[in-house]
Amino acid sequence: MDILKFSLGGRTAFFKKPEVNTYYSFTYGNIHKVALLGMFGAIRGYKGYSSMEAKGTGYPEFYEKLKELHLGIVPRNENGFIRKKIQWFNNSVGYASEEQGGNLIVKEQWLENPSWDIYVAVDCEEAEKVADDLLSHRCIYLPYLGKNDHPADITGVRSLKDCKDVSGFKKIDSLCLKEKVSHGDITDFEEEYEDIPVFKYEESLPVALKQETQMYQYCTFTHSNLPVERYDGPVYQPDEETIVFL
To answer: Using alpha carbons only, what angle is made at residue 85 by residues 83 and 214, rounded to the nearest 5 degrees?
Structure first.
């Protein structure tokens, strides 16, 4: 199987959680599959949520065409953690708020300097189209990281040929489903990890859209540098990183 790899990052990112309190809008701690499909949809020029009929059901065009893509996401920030910061800014377009002057004060939590390696399994026609666009540095709409205030930097695009699943791996570098992976006990590897900070990230992230409502469907993901005892599914090592596809 051929696999496309590229590096993805930016100064900031905002992958909005639907749950909002009175004051702030919060972000997921990593890019998720639906957000990546939206970015690929922008590159391909596919329509999004705003083009759907107000009372219609079904998926937005980008998701309908790209939902079968298999993606690997490798966080590249130090110790598996992306810093977050609350940002305040004014939206003064006039229709943003019913307050006097039409000014809305927006408070959002942004990721700072996020960085990932992204892998795409080139195993279907749509994946081939996405790979061709990225390798040719071509897009219809500019890609961004969750919102158009956050331009995406895409670098190091390359095609990796004839990749096969592997065995005997010691760790998994990409995000993976918590239910499929089992990590070893750190006490069994004290010497190996003597000078290495151990980290383990867990978060419930969107994996799909519900057709009737376009709301997210979630799974719990984990990312750690701990040794892996078990993973229920194929594991690939197309480059120096060991990954699983979502």
So the answer is: 90
The secondary structure of the chain as a DSSP string is: -EEEEEEEE-SEE--EEEEE-SS-EEE-SS--HHHHHHHHHHHHT---GGGS-TT--S--HHHHHHTT--EEEEE-SGGG---EEEEEEEE-SSSS-SSGGG-EEEEEEEEES-EEEEEEEE-SHHHHHHHHHHHTT--SS--BSSSTTSBPEEEEEEEE-S--B-SS-S---S-EEGGGEEEPPGGGGTTTTTTS---EEEEEEEEEE-TTT--EEEEEEEEESSPEEEESS--B-SSSS-B---
Tokens standing for residue 12? 């900031």
Q: What angle do CA 65, 138, 77 make, to 5 degrees?
A: 85
Q: Confirm whether pTM is higher than 0.70.
A: yes
Chain centroid to Cα 117, Å, comes to: 10
Cα separation, 132 vs 138, whole angstroms: 8
Give the least confident one: 7-11, 65-69, 102-106: 102-106
Q: What is d(CA 222, CA 227) in angstroms, rounded to the nearest whole number?
A: 13
CA 236 → CA 67, 80, 131, 163, 166, distances in Å? 21, 20, 18, 7, 6
Q: Answer whether residue 243 shows pLDDT above 90.
A: yes
d(CA 220, CA 173): 16
